[in-house]
Fold each of these.
Amino acid sequence: MVKNKIFFQKPNLELLDSIGLQSVDMHFHSCYSDCYTQIPNILKKAKKKNIGVAITDHNAIGGALKACNDNKGVMVIPGIEVSCKEGPHILLYFYNIKELEEFYIKNIKPKKNVNPYWVTKLKVSELLEKTTNYNCIRCAAHPYGYSIIASGLSKSVKRHNVNIKTLDDIDSMEVICGAMNRVLNRRAQKKALMLNKSVTGGTDGHTLFELGNVVTSSYANDVDTFLDNIAKRKNLVI
């Protein structure tokens, strides 16, 4: 497979499946953080589309736990989206749900604020340092953030809110985020390729309608192989 192939077009899920590619929406939220979408409904829709999903709730893992423990035959990537103190959101993808649960209990849960889904008390550098003993992929969610809020790592570095060296500790960048416009996603793509980072894509979806509109695809039959292929840059983002 050609490395770092990024397509700004609607994914043809049936075609991808027919040639043996596993497609996963790598950034999706549930009722366990900031929306009303139920896990059983997410899994039902994912199964119907024949795709996988990473439940990446804000500073929360209840949805990921439920989805992994009752996956209905859907590939579920154990994940979390951590909102750091300076603003950036970091997606963490774990190889198994037990390690995610342990990491969350030790490092995220104690650092939540009054609003548990808003920013945590963890700086980006602190969060990344705490991942060093865990087997996970650390990904900058929507690196150029929103037009007003500096919730992207690249934007925060540009504004000097975060040390530029932090970019060295990131494994991957979300180059297509469904919540961002094309201009911001193109910037993320350019930055990822410049820094020689692996790439992912996901909808950042909060409703079933969004599920699968952006996918990361790879030849993989299990979570370990899928994440390994992202790390090796043997995947597509569509």
Note: The chain is about 30% helix and 20% strand.
Amino acid sequence: IMQFVENILASGVLLTTPILLAAIGGLINRLGGIVNIGLEGKMLLGAIIAIIVSANTNSWLLGLLAAGFASSLAGFFFSVLITRLNANMIIVGFGLNIFIAGLVGFYLKWFHGSSGTLKIENTVLLPKVSLPFIHELPLIGTLFSNKDPLTWISWIIAFSIPWIIFKTRLGMRIRCAGSDENVARSIGLNVNNLRDFSSAIAGFFAGLAGAHLSIGMLGLFSMGLISGRGFIALAAFYFGRNMPIRTSLVCLIFGILDSMQIRLQGLGLPSEPVQAIPWITVIGILSFMGWSEQRKSQELK
């Protein structure tokens, strides 16, 4: 049983990485004043760009960077439609998801004759990093040893973000732009530029998240690769109350739940109800949060 639990936790840490990266980006964007519904599409874009660039350059690092910058560009255009053209952010986000999915599907069909899957032989995957002094430790070695660099980087970023957001000038400007637009403009801040920047950052992290799925775990691309992780990331920073550390812990919970449903399927349990475990958890937590907030408001009255 202990070995089973350790395996769930170890794969849970790995499965947390794409959710964590997307959630951090979405959190920054939310603090800047934009709710980023388009994380799913940007992750999909990052996933396919990463595998194409990795295979053609023989470099996983270039694959990651290309994925991040491509999705960052998509994030910037997403933001411009909202900040400059006053489009509804929810509609633009859903529209972006549909547009990218259609564009990727067209590319696969037209250039590769595939209906939804792409595997390129020369794809270079993310290497695994195993630290000797950690590998020997019980449980901790199982959890943190033999992980790819992006998993390590995602947690370093997660614990650095609070300082960036709350202690640096740029972080405070982004929060000001998101909390009160009129105050931000009155002190000379360009709100639109700050929101565009936060959207580009969110796109970059979402691109890295998608790249982790394609060249970090599977070594191939499929249209169903993201499987709602962008929306789980969206839920994560809402559960975390826009606080980076809380958001990171929520992402870890979702990663472990994802790992659990995969392991349970391996034991022969029906796949459909087991796959619903993360989503049932999301609905349950959202319902509880809504109930608790309603109860607090009634008590204040």
Note: DSSP finds 14 helices and two strands in the chain.
Amino acid sequence: MKKQLIALLCIASLLALLFGGFTYVTRYKITHIDSSISDDGQYEVIYQAVGEPDWPFGYSHARIVLKHDGKTITKRKFDVANDGGVLHSDSWSVSWKENCVNVIISGEEQPDILYSFHFDGTVRVASPVDLCKDPVIDFSDTVEENANGESAFAV
């Protein structure tokens, strides 16, 4: 009876270990994809995959990590619609600015998404197309005519 109980516990432990390992690899394992370092060498932005893509044709899970002198400033997790494919270094582009780093993430089944990681730890998310558009400012309610019939700004 003891041998059967020990054998049963060993089998249950082995199954739990296999299930735990599978869950870790598919959901939590961090895989380094690519990184970029600022021109002054103080900042680094790292592109990582989190787990495996959803099966069979789901999202890939990723995160961006911004570091300053080796210390993490911020992390941002997000999903990429990539037709169930793994992420690779060609699916991102990086441009360093004075107070932030802009990261554009591309996926096969989504428009590009811009993540702007500011060095103070804030993150801004937008479509790169939206950022290129000039804002439209309507001054129609502030313009009046003066006594000479000329346009003048009303204060």
Note: The longest helix spans residues 2-28.
